[in-house]
């Protein structure tokens, strides 16, 4: 049983973190190093992946901690270049954990294949003809994706939307099981378009998936007792009320909602990338969904619950896959999936959504109290302390000292470390225990 509580993980050296992560995952360190040591993909593989390749481009692969979802602990694979994101999400997940963790659920993995139709003179007749022919159309669709049908997926329904002026659009709903499904759905759209156009008495135009995959939504809820929210000089009640106000600000103002959602995507995208999924598709779907009511709104919102707790809720379309695509060629993405320890694409979507809610909470808690710069500087001071050779409890001591002195440099950190350890080179004495 994986535990996502690994206190002091951030204070360890890279090697120590690799050893502990491998242990937690039940794999050999060499396996971990093979998968992500050099970024997970060499140039020869990259050359098979896309066109005009001249090399590869690495990003940090980290593990988000403390996530408990539906009563189970998860390690969260996170690939991201922005400092503070992983620490902030892990810290917020710890607070949420004290309130019982995340409750999450995901819809069936239904993707939408769109077939654009124009020149339709009688929309009602077109609708009746397509409805009557639905069993034939679904069978035709399934014939084009036998592999998916064998895995238990396939076309499920056809819906028509009238866009006016003789324009209709047919939506074919395809259960993609554990695939993201873009290729499958595009195949379905292309295989049905002629027959659908014939039945509608119009012409077929574009045939492609919709990235507004709102039949494949994920919902996450969490409830945090105020006792867990006290922070700095603020009481739990104050922090709760300020976070609710911050949520309402985003609900009233699209300019704030964009930044609020960026903070939420800070948690979602790293999981999407770490598991080899298409983050442009996820971003497009999330933002289109955020604007579904005709105004751009926050994905994640916060309220005071009946019991006084802070309650967070988010619903977002997340078309993620755990088979196919990049996973075929990217060792790092396969390892990311292994870290996530999920059994299905739905479970992965739920985990990514939890990371999103945690990131949003972390940002709002900081913004609604001291502002984010203080936390950023404190984290930066920790990284500098570690870079200067501090380990174990010395990390915090050195970080605090350089942060307070305002000289957040490796030289200043070495100086403090020398004073603490009595060593002229600043290296810690052997046996300084690393808190784990
Ligand atoms: C920075 O990456 C994200 C934040 O701007 C999010 C927010 O403002 O809610 C801190």
What does this structure look like?
The chain has 16 helices and ten strands. It is of the alpha+beta class and 436 residues long. The chain has three domains: 9-107 and 217-369, 3-hydroxy-3-methylglutaryl-coenzyme A Reductase, Chain A, domain 2; 110-209, Hydroxymethylglutaryl-CoA reductase, class I/II, NAD/NADP-binding domain (Alpha-Beta Plaits); 374-421, no CATH class. The strands form three sheets. The chain has a four-stranded antiparallel beta sheet with strand order 3-8-10-9. Strands 5-6-4-7 form a four-stranded antiparallel beta sheet. Strands 1-2 form a two-stranded antiparallel ribbon. α1 (14-25) crosses α2 and α9 (236-252) crosses α10 (254-274). The longest helix is centred in the C-terminal third of the chain and has 23 residues, at 345-367. The two termini are 18 Å apart.
Low-confidence stretches: 424-436
- CATH class call of the largest domain: Alpha Beta
CATH topology of the largest domain: 3-hydroxy-3-methylglutaryl-coenzyme A Reductase, Chain A, domain 2
**Between the first and last Cα atoms, what is the distance in angstroms?**
18 Å
- In the sheet with the most strands, the strands line up as 3-8-10-9
The helix/strand class is alpha+beta
CATH-level-2 architecture of the largest domain: Alpha-Beta Complex
Mean of residue pLDDT? Answer: 94
* Count of the separate structural domains: 3
Q: Which series of helices and strands comes N to C? A: HHHEEHEEHHHEEHEEHHHEEHHHHH
Provide the helix percentage. 40-55%
Count of individual helical segments: 16
Number of strands: 10
Morphology call: globular
Largest sheet: 4 strands, antiparallel
- Gyration radius (Cα, Å) is 25 Å
Q: What portion of the residues fall into strands of 2 or more residues?
A: 15-25%
């Amino acid at each position: 049983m994986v535990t996502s509580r690994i206190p002091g993980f951030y204070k360890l050296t890279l090697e120590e973190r690799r050893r502990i992560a491998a242990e937690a995952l039940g794999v050999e360190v060499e396996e971990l190093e093979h998968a992500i040591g050099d970024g997970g993909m060499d140039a020869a593989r990259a050359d098979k992946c896309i066109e005009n390749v001249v090399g590869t481009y690495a990003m940090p692969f980290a593990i988000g901690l403390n996530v408990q979802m539906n009563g189970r602990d998860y390690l969260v694979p996170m690939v991201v270049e922005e400092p503070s994101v992983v620490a902030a999400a892990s810290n917020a997940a710890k607070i949420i954990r004290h309130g019982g963790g995340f409750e999450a659920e995901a819809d069936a993995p239904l993707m939408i294949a769109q077939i654009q139709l124009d020149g339709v003179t009688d929309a009602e007749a077109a609708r009746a003809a397509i409805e009557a022919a639905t069993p034939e159309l679904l069978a035709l669709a399934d014939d084009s994706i036998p592999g998916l049908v064998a895995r238990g997926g396939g076309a499920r329904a056809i819906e028509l939307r009238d866009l006016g002026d003789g324009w209709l659009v047919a939506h074919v709903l395809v259960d993609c099981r554990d695939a993201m499904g873009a290729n499958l759905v595009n195949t379905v759209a292309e295989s049905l378009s002629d027959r659908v156009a014939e039945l509608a008495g119009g012409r077929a135009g574009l045939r492609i998936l919709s990235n507004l995959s709102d039949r494949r939504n994920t919902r996450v809820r969490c409830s945090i007792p105020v006792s867990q929210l006290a922070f700095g000089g603020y009481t739990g009640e104050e922090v709760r009320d300020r976070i609710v106000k911050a949520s309402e600000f985003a609900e009233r103002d699209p300019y704030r909602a964009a930044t609020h959602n960026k903070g939420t995507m800070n948690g979602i995208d790293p999981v999407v990338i770490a598991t080899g999924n298409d983050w442009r598709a996820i971003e497009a779907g999330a933002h289109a969904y955020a604007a579904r009511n005709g105004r751009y709104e926050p994905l994640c919102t916060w309220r005071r619950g009946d019991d006084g707790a802070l309650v967070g809720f988010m619903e977002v379309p997340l078309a993620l896959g755990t088979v196919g695509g990049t996973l075929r060629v990217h060792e790092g993405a396969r390892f990311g999936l292994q870290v996530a320890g999920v059994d299905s694409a739905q479970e992965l979507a739920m985990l990514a959504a939890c990371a999103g809610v945690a990131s949003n909470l972390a940002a709002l808690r900081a913004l609604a109290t001291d502002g984010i710069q203080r936390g950023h500087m404190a984290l930066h001071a920790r990284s500098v302390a570690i870079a200067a050779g501090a380990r174990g409890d010395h990390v915090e001591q050195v970080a605090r000292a350089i942060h307070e002195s305002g000289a957040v440099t490796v030289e200043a950190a070495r100086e403090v470390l020398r004073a603490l350890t009595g060593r002229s080179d600043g290296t810690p004495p052997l046996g300084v225990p690393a808190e784990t």
